[in-house]
Specification:
By secondary structure, this protein is mainly β. It has no helices and 4 strands. The chain has a 4-stranded antiparallel β-sheet with strand order 1-2-3-4, with no helix packed on it.
């Protein structure tokens, strides 16, 4: 991606995302409960600073647990 605007030099932006999902299989086949785990990581990086905006790196992580019955 690249940002630009009035009187602003363009600045390249790099955005990466990584996700992992895990759903274990129940040993008891009669159990109706299912569990789900997910882990996400997002990295946002403005590669070059401009007059109004400095270069920066931002990292965001998420962890989710859900179950259904």
């Amino acid at each position: 991606n690249e940002t630009s605007g009035d009187n602003i030099k363009s600045s390249p932006i790099l955005n990466n995302r990584l996700n992992f999902n895990y759903s274990p299989i129940a040993k008891d086949t009669e159990s109706k409960i299912s569990h789900n785990f997910s882990l996400g990581l997002n990295l946002l990086n403005r590669l070059k600073s401009t007059e109004q905006k400095p270069a920066f790196t931002e990292t965001t992580g998420t962890f989710n647990y859900s179950f259904a019955f």
